[in-house]
Amino acid sequence: MNPTLSLMSAHRTIRRFADVPLDEGDVERAVAAAQHASTSSNIQAYSLLRVRDEAKREELVELTGGQPQVAQAGGFFVVCGDQRRHALVAGRAGRPYEPNLETFLLAVVDASLFAQNLVLAFESFGYGICFIGGLRNRLPEADRLLALPEHVLPLYGLCVGTGAEEPRRRPRLPLEAVLFDERYPSDDELLRQLDRYDAVMADYYAERGKPGYDWSGGIARKFARRNREHLRGLYESKGARLE
Ligand SMILES: Cc1cc2nc3c(=O)[nH]c(=O)nc-3n(C[C@H](O)[C@H](O)[C@H](O)COP(=O)(O)O)c2cc1C
C-alpha cells in the first residue's frame, strides 16, 4: 500500500480525546490543503467555523445529544455549506440569486469533499477525528448559538484532537457490495453480500459487548422512522430552497 492508501485505510473514529490543544499551524496547513478538494465549477460552497468558547462547546455537548467529545477534543469545528458569498456577489453584480435543491446539493457535496480532505490532513498529522452529525439534532438552537448568518448552512460538527483511545477499525461492506462492474446486482445478490457482512459485523459487535447486533438490523431500525424533520424549515429559514 502507498502512504495515502495506508492513511485512508487506517481511519477509525475517535471519541475520547486527551486534553491537548491543536497546533495552530497544523490547523492552517490542514485547511489550506483541504481547500484543494475538487469543487463544482470552483464555487467553493463551504466554510468552517471553529468554536473555541468553552461555554458554547458545553452547550453544544447538550445540543448534539450529550456527546462529551464536542467539549473534550483539542478542537471543535462546524462544517457549513456556504452560499453567502454567492448571494453577496450576485447582489453586488445586480443579479438575482436563485437557490434551489440543486444549489443546496452543490453546497452539501462541496462541503463534504472539503471535510473529508480535511479529516485526512488531520489524520496525517496523527490527530483523531469524530464527525458530529448530532449537530442536526437540535439544529435551530445550534444555529442560533453559532450566530450563523443567512445562506450559511450548518451541516455537521467535527472534533479533532489527540486521541485517548485505540478503537478497532470498523469493518466495511465487502468490495463486491460496493463496486459493480457494468450492471447493478439483483436484490438476491445484494442480500447475499449483506448476509456475509452481517456475519462480520455480528463478530465486531459481540467483541464490543453488543451480542446479537448486526448491520442490517441496525439499518432497518434506523430508517424505520423519519428523523430530524425540522431541517427543511431551518435551512429554508436561512435562505436555502429545497425544491
Ligand atoms: C456526517 C457524519 C456524522 C457523524 N456523526 C457522528 C456523531 O454525531 N457522533 C459520533 O460519535 N459519530 C459520528 N459519526 C461517525 C460514524 O458513526 C462513523 O464514521 C461510522 O460509524 C464508521 O466508523 P469509523 O469512522 O470508526 O470507521 C459521523 C460520521 C459522519 C460521516
Question: Summary?
Answer:
The chain contains ten helices and four strands; from the N terminus they run ααβααβααβαβααα.
Description of the molecule:
The chain is an alpha+beta fold and 243 residues long. It has two domains: 166 residues, NADH Oxidase, CATH 3.40.109; 74 residues, no CATH class. It has ten helices and four strands, in the order ααβααβααβαβααα. A four-stranded antiparallel beta sheet has the order 1-2-4-3. α2 packs across α6. It starts with a helix and ends in a 6-residue tail after the last helix. The chain binds flavin mononucleotide. Flavin mononucleotide (FMN) binds next to β3.
Draw up the topology in text:
Blueprint: H1 3-9, H2 24-34, E1 46-51, H3 54-63, H4 69-72, E2 75-82, H5 84-92, H6 101-124, E3 128-132, H7 139-146, E4 152-161, H8 187-207, H9 215-222, H10 231-237
Antiparallel strand pairs: 1-2, 2-4, 3-4
Flavin mononucleotide is lined by residues 11-13, 15, 67, 130-134, 156, 170.
Q: Poorly predicted ranges (pLDDT <50, ≥5 residues)?
A: none
Going across the biggest sheet, name each strand in turn. 1-2-4-3
- Ligand names: flavin mononucleotide
Number of DSSP strand runs: 4
Secondary structural class: alpha+beta
The CATH homologous superfamily of the largest domain is called NADH Oxidase
The first-level CATH class of the largest domain is given as Alpha Beta
Average of pLDDT: 98
Which CATH architecture of the largest domain? 3-Layer(aba) Sandwich
Question: In percent, how helical is the residue content?
Answer: 40-55%
